[in-house]
Design brief:
The structure is a homodimer of 174-residue chains. Chain A has a domain of 87 residues: Winged helix-like DNA-binding domain superfamily/Winged helix DNA-binding domain (Arc Repressor Mutant, subunit A, Orthogonal Bundle), CATH 1.10.10.10. Chain A is 45% helix and 15% strand. Chain A contains nine helices and five strands. The longest helix of chain A is centred in the middle third of the chain and has 14 residues. Chains A and B meet through helix 1, helix 2, helix 3, helix 6 and strand 3 of A and helix 1, helix 2, helix 3, helix 6 and strand 3 of B.
Chain lengths: 174, 174
């Protein structure tokens, strides 16, 4: 399989990566969540080439992650604002931050601290279950085929299931 | 800045991406969380070349994300098991899943459903504050320089701060 086909697989991880899987894109998003909005600021903070930055920003506008808004008329100047779809990428950027803080920080500690405005505490967010409020981690979640995979299973005898669903050894544990 | 220098910046997002920022790596991790452990299974499920898969698995072993464990002696056979450091990548993979389910799924719905074993509900995990239990999102978190950036600020007058810290417009909101 070529990478450019990856967004067509029946897998939400692959579909997400087809939009934001580029490494510079994730750093552009980090900047956006730190309130950077203008081309020259992204360019100065990230140090990537203007060519690559232009390409990545255009893709994110096309995908509905950024809205390109004119903030000055003469000369025309634009800024890139996160849409609702873009703001909803926050848990991914936080996930990357949290893991880096925990496993890659070294003796100097975390580069950035996150403060929860609701309670004022410095914290590292954790995953929780919206149904019961309990913690969610790799050991207490089970992945099952959802509607899209069940439809595929019915349609073509599960041939494509093998690419994107829980394995046999997982099935046996049920 | 070249990509290979990215792990050296004072930013937890960049440090994490220096380990897992490759797109195939994130799909390898998705497979691992679906209980895939063996080279031939990763190869069959992902459809990438054996050469690329070998390189990515070796990197993940070197970084302490996978442990390579012999499961058969004659002939010798190995499997790749997530370490604690690897299991702690779960929130990132879940973040990618959740966003794909919400924004990229189309009419067929989600490919995979997640069931919280503690309560039995199908759910999409949300970020919460471990201090107060309230929801965490892009709008109710403030990023402040942490210990590592404060040390840099003291040492070199903030020159490197510009690359990885909240922007001026952010500072003004305090």
């Amino acid at each position: 399989m070529r990478w450019r086909e990856i967004g067509e697989t029946t897998c939400s991880v692959a579909r997400t990566l087809s939009v934001i899987g580029d490494r510079w894109t994730l750093l552009i998003l980090r900047e956006a969540f730190l309130r950077t909005r203008r081309f020259d600021d992204f360019h100065a903070h990230l140090g990537l080439t203007r060519h690559v930055l232009t390409a990545r920003l255009n893709t994110l506008v096309d995908e509905g992650v950024f809205e390109k808004v004119r903030y000055q008329d003469r000369p025309p100047r634009f800024e890139y604002r996160l849409t609702e779809k873009g703001l909803d990428l926050y848990p991914i950027v936080i996930g990357l931050t949290r893991w880096g803080d925990r496993w890659m920080a070294g003796e100097d500690g975390a580069p950035v601290e996150l403060v929860h405005r609701e309670c004022g505490h410095t914290m590292l967010p954790e995953l929780g279950c919206p149904e019961c409020g309990g913690p969610v981690n790799a050991r207490n979640v089970e992945a099952r085929p959802g509607p899209a995979l069940r439809a595929l299973l019915t349609n073509d005898d599960g041939a494509r299931m093998r690419r994107a669903a829980p394995r046999d050894d997982k099935e046996k544990t049920r």
